[in-house]
Here is the input.
Amino acid sequence: MNGTDIILSVDQLTVRFDASPPLLKRLVTGAKRRTVHAVEAVDFQVERGSTFALVGESGCGKSTIARTIAGIQAPTKGAVSFMGVNVAGFRTRHAALPYRRNLQMIFQDPYASLNPRWRIGRIIAEPILTHRLMTRGAALDARIAELLATVGLSPKDAQKYPHQFSGGQRQRISIARALAANPAFVVCDEPTSALDVSVQAQILNLMKQLQRELGLTFLLISHNLAVVAHMADRLGVMYLGRLVEQGDAEQILARPLHPYTRALLDTVPDPHAPHRPRARLSGEVPSPLAPPSGCAFHPRCPLADARCAAERPEPIRVDAVSVACHAVAEGRIDAAQPDRPKDQQSLEQSGDAA
Amino acid sequence: MNALLQVENLRVEIAARKRRLVAIDDVSFEIAAGEVLGVVGESGAGKSVTGTAVLGLLEAPAVQAGGRILFDGRRIDTLSEEGMRALRGKEIAAVFQDPLTSLDPLMTIGDQLTETMLTHLPMTRAEGEARAGELLAEVGIPAPRERLQAYPHELSGGMRQRVVLALAFCCAPRLIIADEPTTALDVSIQAQILDLLRRMCRERGTAVMLVTHDMGVIAEVADRVAVMYAGRVAEIGPTRQLIAHAAHPYTRGLMASIPSMRRREKELTQIPGAMPRPDAPVAGCAFHPRCPQAFARCAAERPPAFPVGAARVACWLADPAFEGVPA
Here is the structure.
């Protein structure tokens, strides 16, 4: 990505949470300190005007990354730099304002993220007034009407309350609020997970159209691989706090390298391709309180050997993708072959023997 | 067809403040022994209410206002609460979305399984406990004997749903109503649970009514599928036919609006608007305000279910007498 316009750079980001029992209990019972390893040494960059998607199962750390980028969560180690400024480094609220204006969020639940006592007009005006972009008056009303029209609602809707709208319409209001301060970057945390598919299609189309028209950059957090496949230019696959594979979305979806990515892609039921041969992931995601040694995926990986259990794989580059896997590095997976190796297919029988 | 479950012209109404809203409007379908019928639709389409009605668990203000439900040729919607309770859990079992709410948090898993079997089957407590261990092994729970002593909160979400499946299967039911059984689970666990459900049903010849919003799950598991819209069945037929050649414009729109991982479109097909709510019913075909192919008759008259191949389609376009839209 040399020479391109990087709007967001995440460098060795680590977020840990202290989940220890209280001090007194530790002293009395001799219980140990416990740490949740939510995000470990994550590196990625997002190019201006593109969509970067983080995908993974619950508890993999994708939302923690989103919260850290939005400045809601402080990193334990590493840095997040947004438009060249370190996000964690602001001394005062005032110093953070330009960054906050440029970075907005859309949340999953359109029922919880809109104040039920506020009219839509006030909800959308809030970021404009907070950042002192305009003062109350006819010009602000015109801007609210324009924003409502942009997301496919009527200017008259400014007078209504959130409960008068359906889930899809509420998510349109969330988008209008996110766009109100003219941000460069929007973090979308599961923006369509609470919506029905026909409404999901409306929202995804709207997001793509706005990106084209306004040159927005999206960080999309999703567990839905089909949504990610539709939206993302670049893709990061997370497992237990680490990025196991990242790079060009089309390449990863067509030719996944990491055994976890392959299994994840295989597991998703797709009505457009039913009854295809699918590998199964056995077992469950281990606890982030005690992540496995070596490669965190090794207890579930069909290709794991002694080295995988002992030594954590460093990311290596394969074409437009970076992947952290010993089996790929050693050529135990044929990186050029889209077909799955034989031993992975045999997982299908052992799928239930967790 | 030798139907295990027959639902005929089911109508469910909800008593609102001034009037009665229609939640389920003239819904008919059958499930054969050993068959998996998928019931798919968006939220509010009435798929869960249909499942609840079959289980005899409708609660005020929802009431069955018409139609018949037959199980094994016998009417069950007129059974007493007592009679229905004997049937439920024994002949008809249920699996719900959230395993934490279907398990008793204060009872060990072993006790829950044993109690359920002792209620319905002639066996001693010792036999029940032994059988409970076997069931846990069958649903793929590691160290099943020790797990009998565990409480639901000690298990992960996937393991809990396995326990719920063990509970559903413990009295060898002939029909399972599974309402969004994998929606609360991660995709890798979802696949494990669906495989398990499918395998256990196939081995025992158990029929399933699988209620879900996920067309992908339907495509993988169901033999036939009923697409519900605004309390009615829009289309019902074999899964393969319905996915490859959907006849109802709603089904076609629904399929096209699902993003695929295999082909990347510039834009998803979207169905404009939203489903009508029960408090604002639509005359004629409930889908006509959103339908790209609607014509005058659609707004005036409700279409009956016309046969199309092995499917039944409630759409005027499927009428054999249909001769193009009048100019």
Observations:
- Residues 336-354 of chain A have pLDDT under 50 and may be disordered.
- Chain A touches chain B through 45 residues (CB under 8 Å).
- Residues 6-254 of chain A form a domain with the Rossmann fold fold (CATH 3.40.50.300).
- Chain A has one domain: 6-254.
